[in-house]
Write a structure and sequence with these properties.
The chain is an alpha+beta fold. Helix content is 20%, strand content 36%. It folds into three domains: 74 residues, Sandwich (Immunoglobulin-like), CATH 2.60.40; 82 residues, Immunoglobulin-like (Sandwich), CATH 2.60.40.10; 212 residues, no CATH class. The relative contact order is 0.09.
Length: 470
C-alpha cells in the first residue's frame, strides 16, 4: 500500500514539471521576441506605415494632377463664375452668350463634348452661334494648368409654331384653306409638315400650305384645324369655322349631255353641254351649252372694200352680238351668249394685232392679223364629235392667207362636210388692187349657265334632254 502511494507521488511530480515546461514554451511563443503577440504588433505597425506611404503617394498624384511639384506649394483652382445668357433664334438657328467673372483666367467653350483638344477661347459676353435644338454648350475657366468644373446649357426650342389659317374658295362641296406659319426656332419638319383635320378626324397630310377639303355637304358648317410640327416636336395649330355654299350647278350637267333651252325667240333649242362640271377649267368656264343645230344666218363683209374691212376687223364682236340675241334675258338660266370659236372665258378677246406686211395703197396695219381664238372650242367639239351639222357656220376667229404678192383676210368657218374652212372678206394685191367680199353663214350660239341652275327632268340623252330650272 505504501509502495503504490510512492509511485503516485512521483507521477504527480513529473506531471507538474511537464506542465511548467509547457507553460514556459507557451509564454515564449506568445510574448517572446518571436512570439505571436510580438509579430502581430509588428504587422500592425507595418500596415500603418504602408497606409501612410500610400496616402503620401495619392497626395503626390493629386498634386501632380493639379500642376503642383513637391515643395512648391499648391496652385488654386479658378474661382470665377460662368453664366449663360438668353438663347435667341433666327431662321432655325440659335445663339447664346457666355458671361464670366474671372481673375485672369481664360474663358473657353465647346459644343457637344469636352475633349481637351476642342476647347476654343471666347471673350466674356460674346455669343456662340450656329446652334441647333438639342446642342449642348460647355464652358470653363482655364489658367493654363487647371480648369474649373464645366458649366453647360442645352439649347431647347420650347416655342410652338404660330399658325394662321385663311379660308379661300368655297363651293357647295369643297373648301380651300391656306396656312401661314411663323417658326424662327428649330424649323418645320420636312415631311408631312401640315396636318389637315376635318372636325376631329385627320383629313390629309401634306408638305403644301394649301389644301382643299372635298366631298363636303352643301350649306354645312365645318371646323377646320391645321396642325404644324417643328423639328423639336412642338405642335402649333389653329381652328376655324367655314360653311359650304349652295350647289352652284347640278353635277349631272357633264360634257356631251343634252339639255333644252328656250331662246329669246321662244324656240326650244336642243343643246349639248360643251364644257361641264368635270372640265379642268370649270372655275373660269362654268357650264356652257351649245346649240345642237345651227340657227339664223349672218352676213359679213361688203363689195365695198372699206365697208368690208370694217366688217372684218369687228367680226368677232358682231358674231358674239348676234349670238347674244338668242339669249333670253333674265330667265335665270343663261348669263351670257357667244359665237362658237370665241375664247370660252373671254368671248370678246380679239387675240390679234394688225397685219403689218406692206402692200401698195398704204393698207399695211389697217387689217387685223391671224388669231387662234377658235382652237379651244374646235378641239372640244371634235372631242365630243359634235362639230358636223351638214351646214356652214361661223367660228369667231380670223386667218390671213397670202404671199409676197397678195393677201386674203378671211373668217374661219365649219364647212358642210364638217371640216375647218375659211371665207375671204378682204383682198389686197401688191400693186394696190383691193376688193371686198360678202359671205354668209349660220350661228351656233354658246350659252353660259348661271350658278344654281339645276336639272328638273330628263335623263340627258338625245331623245330625252334635261330640262333646266333656276
Amino acid at each position: 500500500m505504501g509502495k503504490e502511494r510512492g509511485i503516485t507521488l512521483v507521477a504527480l511530480v513529473i506531471t507538474v514539471i511537464v506542465l511548467i515546461i509547457l507553460a514556459g514554451v507557451t509564454l515564449d511563443t506568445m510574448i517572446g521576441d518571436y512570439g505571436i503577440i510580438t509579430k502581430a504588433q509588428e504587422a500592425k505597425q507595418n500596415m500603418a506605415n504602408a497606409a501612410a506611404e500610400e496616402d503620401k503617394l495619392i497626395q503626390n498624384l493629386l498634386n501632380e494632377l493639379k500642376g503642383i511639384e513637391a515643395g512648391e506649394g499648391e496652385i488654386e483652382v479658378p474661382k470665377g463664375t460662368i453664366e449663360f445668357g438668353e438663347v435667341t433664334w433666327s431662321n432655325g438657328q440659335a445663339e447664346v452668350s457666355i458671361l464670366a467673372n474671372t481673375a485672369g483666367e481664360t474663358l473657353q467653350y465647346q459644343i457637344n463634348g469636352t475633349a481637351e483638344e476642342n476647347w476654343k477661347e471666347i471673350k466674356s459676353g460674346e455669343k456662340v452661334t450656329g446652334l441647333y435644338h438639342g446642342d449642348e454648350v460647355h464652358a470653363r475657366l482655364w489658367n493654363g494648368s487647371i480648369a474649373s468644373v464645366n458649366k453647360s446649357t442645352i439649347i431647347k426650342d420650347e416655342k410652338k409654331p404660330e399658325v394662321k389659317v385663311t379660308v379661300g374658295e368655297v363651293t357647295s362641296n369643297s373648301i380651300v384653306v391656306t396656312v401661314e406659319v411663323t417658326e424662327e426656332e428649330s424649323g418645320l419638319v420636312e415631311t408631312e409638315t401640315y396636318q389637315y383635320y376635318l372636325g376631329e378626324a385627320l383629313d390629309g397630310k401634306s408638305i403644301s400650305n394649301s389644301y382643299i377639303y372635298v366631298e363636303l355637304e352643301q350649306e354645312t358648317q365645318y371646323t377646320l384645324t391645321v396642325k404644324v410640327q417643328d423639328k423639336a416636336g412642338n405642335i402649333g395649330e389653329e381652328s376655324i369655322e367655314a360653311t359650304t355654299g349652295k350647289i352652284l350647278v347640278d353635277s349631272r350637267l357633264t360634257e356631251g349631255k343634252y339639255v333644252w333651252y328656250t331662246d329669246a325667240y321662244g324656240t326650244q333649242q336642243k343643246c349639248i353641254v360643251l364644257y361641264g362640271v368635270e372640265n379642268t377649267n370649270y372655275s373660269s368656264y362654268g357650264i356652257q351649252i351649245i346649240t345642237a343645230d345651227t340657227v339664223g344666218n349672218v352676213t359679213l363683209g361688203s363689195s365695198d372694200f372699206n365697208t368690208s374691212r370694217n366688217s372684218y376687223n369687228n367680226a368677232i364682236a358682231i358674231l358674239n352680238a348676234e349670238a347674244e340675241n338668242y339669249r333670253k334675258k333674265d330667265d335665270g338660266i343663261a348669263e351670257v351668249a357667244r359665237c362658237v370659236g370665241s375664247v370660252p372665258d373671254n368671248p370678246n378677246y380679239d387675240g390679234a394685232g394688225m397685219y403689218t406686211t406692206q402692200f401698195g395703197g398704204g393698207y399695211s396695219g389697217t387689217l387685223k392679223d391671224t388669231d387662234n381664238n377658235y382652237v379651244t372650242d374646235w378641239e372640244q367639239m371634235n372631242k365630243l364629235k359634235i362639230y358636223n351639222r351638214g351646214k356652214y357656220y361661223w367660228l369667231a376667229s380670223r386667218v390671213v392667207i397670202g404671199n409676197s404678192s397678195y393677201c386674203y383676210f378671211d373668217m374661219r368657218r365649219v364647212n358642210i362636210s364638217g371640216s375647218l374652212g375659211t371665207d375671204a372678206l378682204c383682198y389686197v394685191y401688191i400693186y394696190g388692187t383691193t376688193n371686198g367680199y360678202t359671205s354668209s353663214g349660220a350661228l351656233r350660239p354658246v350659252f353660259r349657265l348661271k350658278q344654281g341652275v339645276k336639272v328638273t327632268s330628263g335623263d340627258g340623252t338625245f331623245e330625252n334632254p334635261y330640262t333646266l330650272a333656276p
